Amino acid sequence: MSESQFQPVDSSVTPRYAEIATFMRAARAELTSSIDIALAGVPLDLGATYRSGARQGPAGVREASRLIRQVNPTTGVAPYRLANIADIGDAPTHPLSVEKSVEVIEAFYSRIYAAGAVPVSVGGDHTVPLPILRAIAKSGPVGLIQIDSHSDTFDEFMGTRYNHATFVRRAVEEKLLDPRRIIQIGLRGTRYGDDDINYGAQVGIRMVTMDEYEQIGRARVIEEIQRTIGSKPTYVSIDIDGLDPKEAPGTGVPEPGGIMMRDAQMILRALTGIDFIGGDICEVVPSLDPTGITCINAANLMFELTCLAAVAHDRRKAK
User: Fold this and answer.
1) pLDDT-derived band of residue 3, with 50, 70 and 90 as boundaries?
2) Most buried of 4, 12, 153, 250, CB within 10 angstroms?
3) Neighbours of 2 (CB within 10 A)
4) Which of 129, 125, 139, 84 is nearest to 109 (CA)?
5) SS3 71
6) b or e along 244-269 (b: 16 or more beta carbons within 10 Å of the residue's beta carbon)?
């Protein structure tokens, strides 16, 4: 397959409303070793415990991402010039079983890892990062940048161990994540009890609540992210409920008083050059947002993750 087949649809030539929707108008392709960055959907929401519908997230973000152009306005990164990028479709899921879904999603991402591609994904609920990390964190624990209103560190939730509130804890226990290289930004939801976030504190996770975010400001938070993750491999997971609900009303568990979209963009742009090994945006529920702004913002965040992936790929290739 030639490199030219991976070029995105040019929206200055082909109208945005034309052709079949793919993530950010990237070429649709089957997974091969020629692909450097694999864009994928994970339509799973059986791990969500309140409002369902995140299984429609990949479709909604594909449609909204028709808006995305090709060059980052702040960093100047043009990802399609740096890497072969393709939409490889959706991971398989089981419509009736979280456990079986986790198994088949892991197998799907293991193939991406074996092909040498970096995954950038749209879920799905926040169960999704666990099988992805099982597939790609094969060389030892990695770091995590998590934008979220919840810590996702419960041992069990609703009597189950695999759901959208447990992925960080499972990943630490399975030595997929190094807790000392995890930073969570935007935590603010009301809690079930006093010990809801004790696990994170016990294992050394850096937790930046919205109260602290406001106190120290965006620039200091960026410094904290860089200090925490260092120069080693790092995964980025964005729960769309980390954004303020007026920026992302289409989500299962909206929490008032969150991060502004502008801040999220600038945080990610400031991380250009990190050793990025993959990322996701989860918990997008298109049916809960008739305005479409949730999907639009998720598509723009996906572009930011793709820029991080492209720069990381280019640096690895140069070594």
Assistant:
1) very low
2) 250
3) 7
4) 129
5) coil
6) bbebbbbbbbbbeebbebebbbbbbb
Angle 188-153-234 from CA coordinates, rounded to 5°: 90
Residues 45 and 283: their CA atoms lie apart, in Å, by 8
Closest C-alpha to 2, from 29, 24, 26, 22: 29
Residue 11 has pLDDT above 50, yes or no: yes
Over residues 31-66, the pLDDT tens digits come to 999 999 999 999 999 999 899 999 999 999 999 999
**Among the ranges given (12-16, 140-144, 175-179), the one the predictor scored with the smallest mean pLDDT:** 12-16
| Nearest Cα to Cα of residue 152 among 173, 121, 136, 122 | 173
Signed CA dihedral, 57, 58, 59, 60: sign only: positive
Look at residue 1 in the predicted model and tell me its pLDDT.
36
Nearest Cα to Cα of residue 42 among 97, 101, 124: 124
Delineate the domains of the chain, giving CATH numbers in brackets: 3-318 (3.40.800.10)
